[in-house]
Amino acid sequence: MKIAYITYSGEIKYSAANGFNEITGLLSYLQNKGLDIEATIWDDPAVDWTKYDIAILKTPWDYHQKIDAFKAWLDKIESLDIRLLNDYKIVRWNLDKHYLQEIIADGFDVIPSVFLERGWKGGLQPLFETLKTQSVIIKPCISGGSKNTIIVHQQAIAASYEQVVALLAEADYIVQPLMNEIQDGEWSYIFFNGKYSHTILKRPKAGDFRVQQIYGGSIDTLYPTAEEIAHAATYVEKYAKECLYVRVDGLMVNGHFVLMELELIEPYLYLSYGENALENYYQAILAQIN
């Protein structure tokens, strides 16, 4: 059973965290466990995909910049009967943040959201009224790493309008209130094969809203209650039950977890922050392939 560990050709911006480099260290760990697995760049034209039985998405972190090529690559390896983890259907669903509309329609707790389609030239003021906020965050529906993500304040609508229209000329966007709770930290629950593994809290540096390490964010291990884990698990049970990995990201609002995103394609899994997380991941792979 030969496994492709899917990466990309760009710079790996995440270095060792908590004493472990998840990108290189995880691959070595899995190889030392006896898996026939090797790093493979998803859009490398020299790759012979016919030699692989399984592909595990790990760091194809430029897919959103090459979305048509990525979709074509998915079609190609699916046609070769290569099993993808996570599954093709769930990856295609999760590519575009419009998937949140389904979760909202199903009655789950999600950060309030308005979707603007490409070519939008409407008014900004109604967005603030709809979302009941004085500041909004606007980000592409297909994106990663806070790319092309901006904040617009209600008092600066006129100054921001042309920038927003220019962004909408290129893609669909999602608009959400800038939640004050982001300063308290973003919760990330990690599950493997539907089983809870660990939780981390990502906090932005002072004066920023981006929680990623590359922007100065900090990370701490959290130990949620059984009730909190069970609530996060409801999203997994409904939308990602059969997935090798799931990261459930959200905020605590008035003591209650509210979803920001379900990360089902290429999330950083913070394996060095959870007791037995590496082994949990490995055992989940074994369960999938067996």
Automatic annotation (TrEMBL):
GO terms for molecular function: ATP binding; glutathione synthase activity. Residues 132-241 form the Prokaryotic glutathione synthetase ATP-binding domain. InterPro entries: DcsG_Biosynth_Enzyme (IPR053191), GSHS_ATP-bd (IPR004218). Pfam families: GSH-S_ATP. It comes from the Bacteria. Coiled coil: none annotated. This is Glutathione synthetase, ATP-grasp domain. It comes from Chitinophaga sancti.
